[in-house]
Amino acid sequence: MNNIFSKENTSINQNKIIISRHRLEKILDAYLLAFNEYNEFNENHILIQDFIQDNTKTDIKLEIQQTDLLFIIKKKLKQNLIEFSTEKEKIIYNRNYFEIINWKRFLDLRDLCIERVSFEVDNRDIFIFWMGVFLSQSGLVSTEHENFKEELRKLAECLYFSDYTKIEDEAMACFFSKLEDQRKGRRVIINKRVYPQMYTPTNKKLIEIFHITCDEQKKMRTIFDCDEKLSRADAKVPGRADRRKLRMGNIINNL
Question: What does DSSP assign to residue 60?
Answer without folding.
Answer: E
